[in-house]
From TrEMBL, chains A, B:
Gene transcribed to yield this protein: ppnP
InterPro entries: Ppnp (IPR009664), RmlC-like_jellyroll (IPR014710), RmlC_Cupin_sf (IPR011051)
Organism: Aeromonas simiae
Statement: the UniProt record of this protein carries the keyword Cell division: no
The protein, known as: Pyrimidine/purine nucleoside phosphorylase
UniProt cross-references to PANTHER family, sorted A to Z: PYRIMIDINE/PURINE NUCLEOSIDE PHOSPHORYLASE, PYRIMIDINE_PURINE NUCLEOSIDE PHOSPHORYLASE
């Protein structure tokens, strides 16, 4: 029911769950640089810490603090720069 | 650096991390009833879903929704009733 995932040699860990039919994960990223591909569109909310991200096909980087959110289109990708371990909520929008 | 934990036969899973010296975990509780003991005092924030809790030595139960938080004293305990899988942030205050 709760699904544990690890990426990037354990530097990103997440727990998948369903809440009232919504699929979501909460996770933590250790400091580092990452790139993720999306299947479904998703909304990422910073829970504690900060995420600096660049969406595919965009030049600019944006930083989101705890409580702030950004959306990523489906079948796309985004790059992340994480300066301190940061907790996030990822909600799948399909 | 990121520490995975499981409780109650995997019905509660969490990921421990440190952010700027603060110790915290994010996790998910599947629907169910749980009781946790605290060592350090902690602040629990609901990330997605809802938690209904009873602090030790209190008669009343309180429900907290996404974005709401409650504190639990150190060396104490609290009971939880979880109706739907719920994600939380736990920050240790010592």
């Amino acid at each position: 029911m709760l699904k544990s995932n690890e990426y990037f040699d354990g530097n990103v860990k997440s727990i998948g769950f369903e809440h009232k039919g919504d699929k979501a994960t909460v996770g933590v990223m250790a400091a580092g640089h990452y790139e993720f591909n999306t299947a479904a569109p998703e909304r990422m909310t910073v829970v504690k810490g900060a995420l600096t991200i660049q969406l595919k096909d965009e030049d600019e980087w944006h930083t989101y603090q705890a409580g702030q959110a950004f959306q990523v289109p489906g079948h796309s990708s985004f790059k992340l720069e994480v300066k301190q371990a940061t907790a996030y909520l990822c909600e799948f929008l399909d």
